Amino acid sequence: MNLSKTIEEIRTEFPILSIKVYGKPLIYLDNGATTQKPEQVIRVMEELYRTSNANVHRGVHRLSDMVSDRYEAARETVRAFINAPKREEIIFTAGTTASINAVAFSFGERFVGEGDEIVISGMEHHANIVPWQMLCERKKAKLKVIPFTDEGVLDLEAYRGMLTERTRIVAVTHVSNVLGTVNPVKEIVAEAHSHGIPVLVDGAQGIQHGIVDVSEIGCDFYVFSGHKVYGPNGIGVLYGKENLLNEIPPYQGGGDMVANVTFEKTTYNELPFKFEAGTTNFTGAIGMAAALDYLSSLGREAVAEREQTLLARATSGMSAIEGLRIYGTAPHKVSVISFLPGAIHPYDAGMILDKMGIAVRTGTHCAQPVMERYGITGTIRASIAFYNTEEEIDAVLRGIGRVTEMFA
Ligand code: PMP
Asked: How far, in Å, CA of 396 to CA of 240, rounded?
């Protein structure tokens, strides 16, 4: 499967990829933290501000109408991109974190009480831990954690044993932002559903690296951020099944989420507006839709295949570096590699790589429990996107080689 454009063509569409840092060509390998934006996204947002800006869903005037139509078209783009059954099931939020907090609050208000249990996994980002802990604290509920193996594979046997009649929701990540593991979310959902338990899937990383089909996964909620999928930041998605979204209360009150307001009683708007209080980030939503269209036009399977090719090159190169350990060696993983070159502190290595123009992430990656699981304080993470090149991977491998020589 080929991309619809050459890598050279693609790279010219991402203006930032041709900048220099410290006089060296930028090698951007921090795509797990945020992705770069193509001209197609930048242009749409600029054009919106230049020619069509007005508040969404607010006025009868032409500009407001035009923006509202484009905002709703963006919702349809998202729906189609993740194959959700209905447009009303797509809620625009500020991002993954906002979406998870919304579910933890609203679902928690409606369905979680004292002594109930919530199941998450040991490889979650803090965004899929802390909102559930806060809920548990509020409701005196209990958090249970699915363990994972040294390779970074969830222990499904343990998971099955964890589900009880007190389990109210399961919340797991599609893809680990540290280990790169692609979790068997379809299986996880099927198991939970056989007990009548709904499942939230954190798709912050999943959306970037593969084809996400929420109808196939069967999950009740799927959440992701625009900025991790080549779109703007400050915008994200909460997909939820219509029946559940109808059952849970709104988590924010304000304009647009209401049907009728009096001081005695307020009634709420229908989906999706019930969960979109106030002026939403409509520019972001339209920009994010442009990013999704861009990915679709490249060929989503081809994007995933290219990333796997680059991952294989990086993995085999790193495996040949003496003393280097890769954290996360699951058979099914995406192009995210966490590693430690011997006893060298990740910050030291990261700073030296930075001076070579190489942007990697160092630290705990907002996943402290993963670090604890391995008894380490942090890793270096190279997260690869389709616009990275073989030459960049080789340059990073040489860079790591230099770092290890310097500390030898
Ligand atoms: N979950 C995972 C797996 C992530 O990788 C991230 C971002 N690093 C988040 C949640 C949070 O995303 P955001 O900061 O865009 O809300």
From this structure: 40
How do residues 48-65 score in pLDDT, each as one tens digit?
A: 999 999 999 877 899 999
DSSP state of 199: E
Q: Which of 176, 177, 207, 361 gets mutated to test ligand 1 (max ligand atoms within 8 A of its CB)?
A: 177
Question: Catalytic: 366?
Answer: yes
Q: Is 379 within 8 Å of 340 (Cβ atoms)?
A: yes
How many Cβ atoms sit within 10 Å of the Cβ of residue 300?
A: 18
pTM of the entire structure? 0.98
Backbone angles phi, psi at 242, to 5 degrees: -50, -45
Q: Is 88 in the pocket of ligand 1 (CB under 6 A)?
A: no
Does residue 13's CB lie within 6 angstroms of at least one atom of ligand 1?
no
Range 67-91 average pLDDT: 97
Catalytic annotation, pick one of 179, 185, 188, 366: 366
The residue whose CA has the least distance to atom 4 of ligand 1 is: 204
Residue-wise pLDDT for 276-294, tens only, equals 999 999 999 999 999 999 9
Q: Is the CB of 31 under 6 A from ligand 1?
A: no
Ligand 1 mutation target, pool 103, 174, 205, 227, most atoms within 8 A of CB: 205
> From CA 202, how far away is CA 238, in angstroms rounded?
10
Q: Domains of the chain (ranges plus CATH)?
A: 7-30+299-406 (3.90.1150.10), 43-296 (3.40.640.10)
Total residue count of the chain as it appears in this document = 408
* pLDDT one-digit tens code per residue, 127-152: 999 999 999 999 999 999 999 999 99
Q: Per-residue pLDDT averaged across 79-92, rounded?
A: 98
